[in-house]
Amino acid sequence: MDWQTLLAKAGYRLSEPRKRIMKLMETAEKPLNPLAIHRILREQGIHLGVVSVYRTLELFFALGLISQVFQADGLVGYLPASFGHHHFIVCQKCQKAVEFSGSEDMRELVQRVQTETRYQVSDHLLQFYGLCPECQALLEAGGNS
Amino acid sequence: MDWQTLLAKAGYRLSEPRKRIMKLMETAEKPLNPLAIHRILREQGIHLGVVSVYRTLELFFALGLISQVFQADGLVGYLPASFGHHHFIVCQKCQKAVEFSGSEDMRELVQRVQTETRYQVSDHLLQFYGLCPECQALLEAGGNS
DNA sequence: CTGGCTGCAAAACTTTTGCAGATTG
DNA sequence: CAATCTGCAAAAGTTTTGCAGCCAG
After folding, report:
1. Of the partner residues B76, B124, B132, the one whose CB lies closest to the CB of residue A119
2. Chain A closest CA to B132's CA: distance in Å?
3. Same domain, A28 and A2
């Protein structure tokens, strides 16, 4: 089911601002926060109220259309969410992020942590930080700055 | 090496506000953000400028004395950091958090992700959310609200 | 003593709220 | 058309900056 259908089924309208924001999110490679989205759209000549950006992101997030990503510097951004668990790896140089699949590998760890801490684990947050292929190549090519 | 020595070696002074804040952090069970720390200390009759709290936390974090914790609702708080990698499990009911050890179990996963994404992994963020023993007991006792 | 540190005030920035008017279904 | 949605304005909340005076080493 595409997001427009999902939105409609949940009783929401397909407005122009929502279309614009989703279109941007769909192509986003880096985590975007509300003000960044507002700024980028404005640079493209699309002027939305900041408030609408906040409200739209809140809605999309509640509907599970986008995920929150925690950046190494503590800021929080959004990225489009595919289904299932959402784990991202973020490039520390260019911020480009991609999703990777699978929390299957974590079952053992979850077991161990439950035994060790006596907490009952119900969810987890897992992100990796590193270098994307492009930035690795740049560094190897000698762009060592 | 204790934090006071570490602070001194790094060329910083051991001021009263810093002592107060570290004393609070050392006993913190839940992630605390700057304003919360300011509020708690004020409730204890200790009045610091909000600014000092921000600057002190920034310093402690830079020195690795405290860690950032990402809460399920997207807010960021601080907790004391023991050494090595800092992984926390946070209670979704009372926010109490404890550290758990070991990223050894993640080696395989890191390998797989590196192959899958072609990113070079250098760091990771791993947190669990769940129920602490106390909150589990409360729920079982019938406090099902 | 003296350079770093605190805390005030104020500015800058981010996020939320209330409401009139535009827009979607 | 009617209810939802947008966007402005303004408020509320958070974080940063500048600076005078204080204090740890």
Report:
1. B132
2. 4
3. yes
What mean pLDDT comes out for the span B2-23? 96
A6 shares its domain with A64: yes
Those residues with Cβ within 8 angstroms of residue B79's Cβ, 6 or more apart along the chain or in another chain: B25, B28, B30, B31, B32, B66, B67, B69, B88, B97, B99
CA distance A48 to A42: 7
Residue type for A71, please? Q
Q: Of all residues in chain A, what percent carry a pLDDT higher than 90?
A: 63
User: The domain containing residue B49 runs over which residues?
Assistant: 1-81
Segment (H or E) for B67:
strand B66-70
Same domain, B46 and B114: no
- Length of chain B in terms of residues written: 145
Predicted confidence (pLDDT) at residue A70 exceeds the cutoff of 70: yes
**What count of other Cβ atoms lies within 10 Å of the Cβ of residue A129?**
18
Cβ pair B25, B78 in contact under 8 A: yes
Total number of domains constituting chain B: 2
Domain harbouring A75, CATH code:
1.10.10.10
* Interchain CB contact of B102 with A (< 8 Å): yes
User: Chain C positions under 7 Å from a protein CB?
Assistant: 4-10, 14-18, 23-25
**Rounded distance in angstroms from the CA atom of residue B41 to the C1' atom of nucleotide C19:** 39
